[in-house]
Specification:
The complex is a heterodimer.
Chain A lengths: L14 H23 L7 H27 L3 E18 L2 E17 L6 H27 L1 H4 L6 H21 L3 E2 L2 E2 L1 H8 L4 H21 L3 H14 L5 H12 L3 H13 L5 H18 L5 H15 L3 H13 L3 H14 L3 H17 L3 H14 L3 H12 L1
Antiparallel strand pairs in A: 1-2, 3-4
Helix pairs in contact in A: 2-3, 2-5, 3-5, 3-6, 7-8, 7-9, 8-9, 9-10, 9-11, 10-11, 11-12, 11-13, 12-13, 13-14, 13-15, 14-15, 15-16, 15-17
Chain B lengths: L13 H32 L2 H10 L2 H21 L3 H29 L3 H23 L6 H22 L5 H24 L6 H26 L1
Helix pairs in contact in B: 1-4, 1-8, 2-4, 3-4, 3-8, 4-8, 5-7, 5-8, 6-7, 7-8
The chains are: A mainly alpha, B mainly alpha.
Chain lengths: ~400, ~230
Amino acid sequence: MRSTFDPAPRRPTTRGERLGAALFALLLTGLLAAELLQGYSPRKLSVLFIIAFWAPLLVVHELGHALTARLLGWHVHEIVIGFGPELARFSVGGTRVTLRLVPMEGYVVPSPDRLEGARGKSALVYFGGPGAEVLCALLALAWLGPETMFTRTEAIPVIAVQSFALAAVIGVLMTLIPHAGGGGASDGLGILLSFRLSDNDFAYRMAGPAMDEAQRRIEADNTEGALEHIDAEIAHDPNNPFLPIMRVRCVAATGDRETALAELERMREQPHHSDLVEGERLHAAARVVLEAGDRELLADAEGACRAALERMGGSPDVQVTLGAILIEQARYREAEEILQTVFKRTRDPWQEDRCMAYLALTALALGREADAELFRQAFEARSHNRRLRKQLSTNWIA
Amino acid sequence: MQPELAQAQPRYAAGARSRFIMNTYLHLFGAVMLFVLIEFALFQSGLFAPVLSAVAGLPWMAVLGIFMVGSWLATRAAHTATSMTAQYLALGVYVGMWSLLFVIPLAYAMMYAPGAISSAAQVTVFGFAGLTAVAFTTRKDFSFLGAILKWIAVCAMLLIGAGLIFGFELGTFFSVGMVAFAGAAILYDTSNVIHHYPEDRYVGAALQLFASVAMMFWYLLQIFSSRD
């Protein structure tokens, strides 16, 4: 009845907000229970069945994406089920699986093996999720038969199967209708966009897992490991333009600023026609300055970040780097504004961690100790980012 | 001890923000007046009868589907269109759609629950005024309600859809829950008007507030009509 327009998407952050949200949810759950009990009929159980089937169907949906990707020879980097606090993280056959508290939505991060046929395969991977749910609905239809499936009944087992099929159909409709919202494109929009992506977009996706892994190793203070990893990836895929750029960041993280700058200069002399590649190069330049702590070049690094953002359409990675640069320039208010924007929208837990650490620093600098402590505690409770841990503890002692 | 995360939002020039807030509430008032005028014209002219039979003649699922798609398009246009004409058109269409949908409960209330309309209207006005006062006096940023409201809306649609498909009626507890939902939506929208909306988007902000107020009135009307 009400289309939600969200000019400021934000999750409950403070203890008071979380308590308020929980009490409100409890009140509505109580009213739902009262509604189902008032004038009880077995048909009302359909609501509970649909809710109960939602999480298993979500798992089926995400596995549909993942299995399709694997069947097409793609690598599945990550499967995330649910949102909210992380419950468990484990690996299955090289795929990182994360289970989170609220199993209402999820996502899969696949990456192509090669550029040939990537558009068609991407569309098929997007279709894999809703396709698996269509299969579930068809199985339910085959089990009950069309007549029973489409006839109202008081028999609870039949209502359960009908609800299962309906939940699957709702899932299909919600994901296949093309729209963008929350953390990204719906499957329907993804299918359509797959055919408009350039080779560089797919090259970026191919490099994505390796770049993420290298970044995580850098953050865990394993800079040599990051360099080794990215070198191995370059040997495996020597034509990918994004991997050498990430290598520059790894080199800078080891402390070898001169080599990193020389490599960047060499890249600058051979400009790439792709905005995505140029954006990543500019971002890498900003990271090199940040790693080196060269205060005289901070203004240039800021300019590089802003130019990268123009080319890459507001990449959250670049926004976080810009936030960090603004913190170094003591422009805390501007930094906080940018970091809040990323923190509100991101679904990536690693990105959330970075934002929380930097937001703790900005709040501390702006004299809001309670906010700073809240962000610091949330960050330290879960993050493996040793570099930011060190930076935070240094600031807290200071 | 509350983190003042609202401080992280862009600073606005006080005068420009005040003008935006004033414009938003003037447009909301205009939308409500347009709604009242349309209903008055429909019921005074007797045109409500063909509208009622047309709306009631369609399957309720189809009516809701048309209304939801129309709402989505109007909301999107009001929030994204650069042309002011398009924004006003979106607001006008949106108010018009609510007006047509309201013909059913208003006609029912007139026939079977005299007094329900004025009671629902009074409670809506007091509820809206109270919640608006809370948002303006506390200056609290209620934007954290956005995600919760989104999921409650999904659950509400699920309940309505399941009721239509499986054949059961939703009663008073559902209406009370939807009034609470509408109240939270008013707090959220008002907070966004204070803290977050771009200052050239007062038509979209007014549409969003109108949607929340209309929803509250709708379900209060259900409650008062059923009680009587």
